[in-house]
Request: fold
Amino acid sequence: MAISLTTAAADRVRSFIAMRGQGLGLRLGVRKTGCSGFAYVINYADQSVVTDIVFEDQGVKVFVDPESLIFIDGTEVDFVKQGLNEAFKFRNPNIKGECGCGESFNI
Reply:
């Protein structure tokens, strides 16, 4: 079981936490939504929950709840800039399909 970060994603998390002046790492999960079934939920973790599963990659901690991990195990998180747009992107080996807009996926 693992969640990994590209160098760009790790750099982005570290720089944003430094700008905020607080944070333990990145919180990653999923929620039921969208036309395909699930959507990623990403935020900065300010605290750890006893049930969290914690991964560390490139010096950045990634906090995942156990219910979400079954859907995102093996995912690589990237941070991409395209023109004026920038966003975290996910390479999830578990997905069977994605909606046309890229906002949701199914397993």
Remarks:
- Strands lie at 4-5, 25-33, 37-45, 53-57, 60-64, 76-82, 85-91, 97-98, 105-106.
- The domain at 4-95 is CATH 2.60.300.12 (Hypothetical Protein Aq_1857; Chain: A;).
- The chain is about 20% helix and 45% strand.
